[in-house]
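To: structure subgroup
Subject: Chain for Friday's discussion

All,

I'm putting the inputs and outputs inline so they're searchable in the archive.
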Amino acid sequence: MNINEAKQEIIHTIKAYLRKDETGAYEIPVEKQRPMLLMGPPGIGKTAIMEQIATELGINLVSYTITHHTRQSAIGLPFISHRRYGGEEYSVTEYTMSEIIASVYEQIERSGIHEGILFLDEINCVSETLAPMMLQFLQYKTFGPHRVPDGFVIVTAGNPPEYNKSVRDFDIVTLDRVKRIDITAEYDAWKRYAYPMGVHGAILAYLDIKKENFYIVKADLQGQQFVTARGWEDLSRIMKVYEEMGLPITRELVQQYLEDPEVARDFATYYALYQKYRTSYHIPEILRGERPKDMAALAGAPFDEKLSLIGLLTDALGQGFRAYGEEMDIQRAVFTELKKLRDAFAAPSGNASEPATATDPGAVLPANQGAQPTRDADAVPDGTKNGLLVQLSSDHDALVVELQRQQKAHLLSHRAERIQRKVLLVLEELMETLRLAQSDGTSTDEALYALAKAWFTKREQVRKSAIESTSAELTNAFDFLHTAFSDGQELVIFLSNLNASSDCLRFIRECGNDSYYRYNQFLLLRDQRSALRAEAKRLLEL
């Protein structure tokens, strides 16, 4: 299966293992919870999906590369203890706690969460001294005398022998105690991961043209040559920073990440061409609704050039989709903090119902809630001073503490951490706005709350304007492609790219777009007609 299918299988297995009955016991006894064994080429994202799974499920992740461990660090150090047996005292050997097991307990203390994943990489490359222990570990979940805490699911990973000379084959006894998942390197599956991660558009456009260069491992007289998914992602990150700094992206830089000289040279050449297309096709102008002067020439352009153009459009739109999702999450978090202020400083006048939450992107937050509470939600005791600003500062500090706790416990994805940091910056901006107003004579909490509402409403207006702009750009992209290529395969490829992007699908789901719905439905009906014609032809030939 591909990496996305493997991820879903692991999630389903973890949920099943952690499911409890009415007595609070695990429905599948811990000793019957088979460790999962992920077998696949190096660099396809096995470790990355474990981080994603732990974040999505809200559980711990303790990760180790087992080849970095000796027998002593894995099972603990021996020490002499004294025991009495049959009335006589004996010296016996005991062991300190395994470094791996100790790390699990430390993670539980840091996070306060008692369930998680213990991920051991390169499990089939263990040293000879550790190999005899692995059967005991896989069957009984123990290192020496110390057991992995209940609630931690064991996931292991390894590479097939053709990718690693140090691999030790598992015997049937060992394989009969694991849940084996074989993973293959598939570009289309990785592409769905690449879009939300913001992988550079040139990389995606290049791999759309030359999918065979996505993953390569080979050996020749010069040694090992390889290109992996990890290499493409890391190259993307450095390329983006280099572009921001105005530094050249050379073949030498590319080859530091793509360890195949031929592929590195080919991509470096394509990147220069991609930059040329970016300039000559005026992508920002197309998304604004303008049309290139040489529209007629596009229909006869080489297919590689058309794919590059589609990639440029997808990449530009993707930035807007990601910005929408990020800003929406920030705005909802800020709304939650303003709601706390309203609840804390509202004057009680009978029983109040809980105000509506900000789940609809089109909702006016929080100046005009759809559900009206039984009290005046905007009423703030007149004459109070500094209380609102003090409360906001206290809430901000609490968010800082929580962010630090989650960072220390490694519970946040890169995106989630970025969102929380931006929320803190936005709240600091609000506090500075209120402090300036206070210094100018706005001293009551009632006036400060009104100012906070106005500040939030302005942010909401900017956000809605960005939504309209992104939606218009998507519509203009569809119109451009339809004008240039009619309803050909170029439009199909463009729609496939959009449907592979979770950011795009979220934007469509929450904001909608008539052009997307129209073309998506049209192509769906066309595919159905083609399938019916093919079936009719088959029946006539019988």
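Points worth raising on Friday:
Residues 3-184 form a domain with the Rossmann fold fold (CATH 3.40.50.300).
The longest helix spans residues 303-345.

D.
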